[in-house]
Amino acid sequence: MSQEETNNAFESFLNSIHLSKKEFIQYGLNILNLIGLGAILFLLYWGYKEEIFTSEAALRDLLSTMGPLAPYGFIFIQIIQTVVPIIPAALTIPMGIMVFGGLQGFFLNFIGIMIGSVINFSLARKFGRPLVETISNEKQFNKYIGWLDNKKRFDKLFIFGMFFPISPADFLCYLAGLSSISFKKFLTILSVGKPFTLLIYSYGMVEIIDFVFQHLI
């Protein structure tokens, strides 16, 4: 089958189920998100039962099986979850702290999310609005796209978003790529704001997860 025939077959498939390409991609991302969430929750449950989060010896044994590539693998996971929302950051960030310890876990989280955020910005700047519309939630996109009409207003939104823990930070990095903000300014705001939100996510969510396992499981 030629490439053109393959594309036509794919178009026919989408038409047969009455989905646009964007809707098809959105459904796929939602499914991946659910799969990622389930996998993380299972790993957290398994880790607690195996005393990974409560026993220094168990944690040391786990890390020894991963070898020296474990930190790089975790950074890669953080990059992926920043660019494509398959795994919730609210779970992967505290996992870094639990597995690698406070200081190393914080820096691994920071490196992965910073790289992913720069990729978001760069992709949006290169491929423009169609890409951002495709990978983002339609309601979310329509809610924030109007902020780009006023440069100063968007700059304030972006700064606030990078410092506020529950903001759609990954999406705002895509949106920044569509704005007139310079890469230097983008990187400066990101570098200053992310450590603050990471601290809250890291240690706040660790306490929540520990409470859940201690009292509800």
Summary tags:
11 helices, mainly alpha, about 220 residues
Q: What does this 3D model show about the protein?
A:
It is a single chain. Helices cover 81% and strands 0% of the residues. It is mostly helical and 217 residues long. It starts with a helix and ends with a helix. The mean pLDDT is 77.
Task: Note the topology.
Blueprint: H1 3-16, H2 21-49, H3 56-66, H4 70-83, H5 89-100, H6 102-127, H7 129-135, H8 138-144, H9 151-163, H10 169-178, H11 183-215
Helix pairs in contact: 4-5, 4-6, 5-6, 5-11, 6-10, 6-11, 9-10, 9-11
What's the gist of this structure?
The protein has 217 residues and is mostly helical.
What's the β-strand tally? 0
Average per-residue pLDDT, rounded, comes to 77
Task: Enumerate the spans where pLDDT stays under 50 for 5 or more consecutive residues.
Answer: none
Task: Tell me, briefly, the overall form.
Answer: globular
Q: How much helical structure, as a percent, in the residues?
A: over 70%
Largest sheet: none
- The helix/strand class is mainly alpha
The span between the termini is 53 Å
| Whole-angstrom Rg | 20 Å
SSE string, helix = H, strand = E?
HHHHHHHHHHH
Strand content: under 5%
Helix tally equals 11
